[in-house]
Amino acid sequence: MTDTDQNAASANRDVVVQSLDGFASMAVIGGEHSVVIDEPREFEGEGIGPNPFGLILSALGGCIAGTLRGVARQHGFDYDRAAIRLSLRVNRPTSGPLDPGERELRISRIIAAITIHGDLTEEQRTLLTHGVETCPVGNTLRRGLRLTETVEFAR
């Protein structure tokens, strides 16, 4: 893959987020899709879009669903549908320093309950169970990642 190909591939996955009024923002994903992100009213947002933690859960659920369908197709079978219910636990300090880095507000646990509907053999069930464990977003969350942030100021 050339540098140009890699840059084009990266551009198709890049997300650009612009702040809106209040706590809301607009994310443009891959230059094609957009979503408004906001905090719920109880956290001073307007609730006009999903909150950031909800988007993380949605990304994981969508990845699991797509991975399951891909595994089934790769092995020549199908199932009726998959239902993925996700919830999270947040390490929510009630007091402490104002610096978010010192408060460590973060997701401490994600629980995914997956129900796959269909008449499946034991082998197919095993393949799908393994598929859940190979979802790239799940792999990223399980194993962690390195986050690099740069801040620029403009007038």
Automatic annotation (TrEMBL):
InterPro entries: KH_dom-like_a/b, OsmC/Ohr_fam, OsmC/Ohrsf. SUPFAM superfamilies: OsmC-like. Gene3D superfamilies: 3.30.300.20. Pfam families: OsmC. PANTHER family: OSMC-LIKE PROTEIN (PTHR39624:SF2), PROTEIN INVOLVED IN RIMO-MEDIATED BETA-METHYLTHIOLATION OF RIBOSOMAL PROTEIN S12 YCAO (PTHR39624). This is OsmC family protein. It comes from Aeromicrobium piscarium. The lineage of its organism: Bacteria, Bacillati, Actinomycetota, Actinomycetes, Propionibacteriales.
